[in-house]
């Protein structure tokens, strides 16, 4: 049952990621990325990361991607024109990607024992209380620093996107 | 009983009740707005217009479903699908009552209790923005695009004060799961004041409740924040190009969002399914009292009917109401029916406030709306959260 | 939390999660290298960040600690800040050059 659920969501994630790379219109890519994020949220739930799954939906899929979709709709540039690529790039591109993934998979199999299996519900430390305790005691300094970082980003984005008043 | 079968049965019950509630909420809205405006509302189709939703459904289903040639087909069909999907999923996470014991099966009146319930519901309703934005984009029409972008910007602007208004009672209740939120509101102060969050110390959450309701009006695009879909402003906004079933889908999504916001307000602020005063003072008799009085009023109006049809229909309604009153008196069914009654009464009151406001208030202009969110609601929600946190820390 | 009673004893091998993370990361790299629209390039970066998040959460499961969740949370926060500023920069570039293709924003090339 776990394996079936994982395979379904993993297949959706990979298909959406492929769609992101293949589609010419940016809005189709944006929607595919939202699909990837939603299926990853479901996979996080299977790994026991409830808070991270909810944060993924609220922050990533619900706010960052809305920003992307707004910018794409406002700029309204349309489809990307076909690029003139050199021949060796077209021939060697896809096989090199496969080699990359195969290399990483081989290294993963070398490092991890094959008997490690993930069961839904075996890890219960991912709920909001446990993460809250860790976040406000052991990781307090990074938390405050990222708050200042977001403040800087807000100020920077507003200054950059403001209309010039002469 | 296997978990999957039990969940499917609960899901079936929730779906049936929800679909009927969506249809009849529209009837209630039309009747209430009509009576506020000193007219009668639908009264031809069925007694007092009660079959009007059925007539509307038949009309919407049999209407010609046009696919305009200039729209982007995939997004055109994806947008109402996304809107309805993310409006209906939160219904599975909301508890409608407490623990019950039915035919030996011990379960709760909730399809699934997730430990991050409120966060997940908040995230899922935030994803509903895509339905609106895509609808505006797919229609390839400048009015729809403007309506869609305005509506999405409004929804994400009001998500911030809503999240801060939700965070304040969560500080007091110390949990994210809906069951535990309602369990933290059991009991009574001085024996008769209920321990709902709006009355609970150290800081009564009245300001949070008001902020949440206002943000809820804006999130669901209801008056006074409904400029993006106003009929006389932007030609119907983002759903201009939609007709028949797809329009019905947006309509259904809006009402489902309204019901979700009311349910969350009930659970977070008004104590969920707990009664208004303790049961030893007779709060279990309230539904029987209400339905009994309604039945008697029906009979007294049937004696002097305003319309000739009422001579037949009003006694039937009177008998129905008296039957319901009797149903609430059976002790075996009270375990299921009383929590449902209190939850329904509180949610129904908030929905009535939604409809009442629609009948009464004029609409905000778009820049007034956005200015209100960023210059008033957001600082107010922050200050409210700060005061609550101070109260919780000092006690 | 109550587990469904018919759950199978064997779960999903952890290596599958890491392979999924690798595949998503590789697709993000492919999008980053081969696409010319600057917003699509930016979205490929977000895809790579998501793949890394999955890796963090998977290892957090293996070590039975929730530090991986916290790192993942910080990655999300930093990605949000980066997206905000990056999109503002893209808007400014569009305002000045009227194009969104990275090959045409090349006036500093010799």
Structure description:
The complex is a heterotrimer of chains A (166), B (395) and C (110). With 166 residues, chain A is an all-alpha fold. Chain A has 2 domains: 1-77, Four Helix Bundle (Hemerythrin (Met), subunit A); 124-166. Chain A contains 6 helices and 1 strand. Chain A has helices spanning 2-22, 26-46, 50-75, 87-111, 128-137, 140-161, and one strand at residues 117-118. The mean pLDDT of chain A is 87. Chain B is mainly alpha-helical and 395 residues long. The termini of chain B are far apart. Chain C is an all-alpha fold. Chain C has a domain at 37-97: Helix Hairpins, CATH 1.10.287.3510. Chain C contains 3 helices and 1 strand, in the order βααα. Chain C is elongated and about 55 Å long. The chains are: A mainly alpha (166), B mainly alpha (395), C mainly alpha (110). Chains A and C meet through α1, α2, α3, α4 and β1 of A and β1, α1, α2 and α3 of C.
Protein traits:
heterotrimer; A: 166 residues; mainly alpha; 6 helices; 1% strand; globular; C: 110 residues; 3 helices; 71% helix; elongated; disordered N terminus
Put the structure in a nutshell.
The complex is a heterotrimer of chains A (166), B (395) and C (110). Chain A is built from 6 helices and 1 strand; from the N terminus they run H-H-H-H-E-H-H.
């Amino acid at each position: 049952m776990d394996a079936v659920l994982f395979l379904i969501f993993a297949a959706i994630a990979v298909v959406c990621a492929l769609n992101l790379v293949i589609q010419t219109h940016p809005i189709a890519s944006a929607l595919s990325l939202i699909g990837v994020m939603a299926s990853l949220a479901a996979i996080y739930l299977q790994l026991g990361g409830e808070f991270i799954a909810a944060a993924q939906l609220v922050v990533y899929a619900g706010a960052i991607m809305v920003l992307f979709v707004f910018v794409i709709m406002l700029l309204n540039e349309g489809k990307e024109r076909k690029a003139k690529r050199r021949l060796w790039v077209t021939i060697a591109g896809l096989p090199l990607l496969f080699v990359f993934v195969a290399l990483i998979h081989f290294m993963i199999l070398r490092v991890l024992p094959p008997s490690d299996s993930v069961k839904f519900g075996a890890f219960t430390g991912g709920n909001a209380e446990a993460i809250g305790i860790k976040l406000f005691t052991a990781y307090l300094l990074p938390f405050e620093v990222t708050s200042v970082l977001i403040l800087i980003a807000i100020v920077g984005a507003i200054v950059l996107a403001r209309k010039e008043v002469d | 009983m296997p978990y999957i079968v039990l969940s499917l049965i609960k899901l079936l019950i929730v779906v049936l009740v929800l679909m009927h509630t969506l249809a009849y909420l529209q009837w209630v809205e039309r009747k209430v707005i009509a009576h506020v405006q000193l007219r009668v509302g639908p009264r031809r189709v069925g007694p007092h217009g009660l079959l009007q939703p059925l007539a509307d459904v038949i009309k919407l289903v049999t209407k010609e479903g046009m696919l305009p040639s200039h729209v982007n087909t995939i997004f055109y069909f994806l947008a109402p699908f996304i809107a309805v999907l993310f409006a209906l999923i939160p219904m599975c996470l909301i508890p409608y009552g407490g623990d019950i014991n039915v035919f030996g099966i011990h379960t709760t009146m909730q399809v699934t209790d997730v430990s991050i319930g409120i966060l997940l519901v908040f995230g899922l309703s935030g994803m509903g923005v895509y339905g609106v934005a895509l609808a505006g984009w797919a229609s390839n029409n400048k009015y729809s695009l403007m309506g869609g972008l305005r509506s999405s910007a409004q929804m994400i602007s009001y998500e911030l004060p809503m999240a801060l208004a939700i965070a304040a009672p969560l500080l007091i209740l110390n949990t994210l799961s809906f069951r535990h939120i309602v369990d933290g509101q059991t009991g009574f102060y001085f024996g008769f004041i209920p321990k709902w969050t709006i009355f609970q110390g150290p800081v009564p959450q009245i300001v949070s409740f008001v902020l949440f309701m206002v943000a809820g009006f804006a999130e669901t695009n209801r008056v006074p924040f409904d400029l993006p879909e106003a009929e006389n402003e932007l030609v119907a906004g983002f759903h201009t190009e939609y007709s028949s079933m797809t329009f019905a889908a947006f309509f259904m999504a809006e009402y489902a969002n309204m019901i979700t916001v009311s349910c969350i307000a009930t659970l977070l602020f008004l104590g969920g399914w707990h009664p208004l005063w303790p049961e030893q003072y007779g709060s279990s008799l309230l539904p029987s009292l209400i339905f009994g009085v309604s039945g008697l009023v029906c009979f007294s109006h049937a004696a002097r009917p305003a319309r000739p049809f009422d001579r037949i229909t009003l006694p039937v309604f009177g008998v129905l109401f008296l039957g319901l009153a009797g149903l609430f008196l059976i002790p075996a069914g009270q375990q299921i029916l009383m929590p449902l009654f209190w939850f329904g009464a509180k949610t129904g009151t908030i929905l009535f406030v939604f409809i009442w406001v629609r009948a009464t208030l004029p609409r905000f202009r778009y820049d007034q709306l956005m200015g209100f969110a960023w210059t008033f609601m957001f600082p107010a929600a922050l200050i409210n959260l700060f005061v609550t946190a101070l109260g919780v820390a000092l006690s | 939390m109550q587990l469904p009673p018919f759950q199978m004893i064997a779960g999903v091998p952890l290596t599958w999660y890491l392979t999924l993370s690798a595949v998503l990361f590789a697709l993000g790299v492919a999008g980053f290298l081969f696409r010319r629209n600057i917003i699509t390039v930016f979205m490929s970066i977000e895809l790579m960040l998501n793949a890394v998040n999955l890796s963090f959460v998977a290892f957090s499961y293996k070590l039975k600690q929730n530090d991986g969740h916290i790192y993942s949370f910080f990655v999300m926060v930093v990605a949000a800040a980066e997206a905000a500023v990056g999109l503002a920069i893209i808007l400014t570039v569009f305002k000045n050059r009227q194009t969104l293709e990275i090959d045409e924003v090349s006036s500093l090339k010799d």
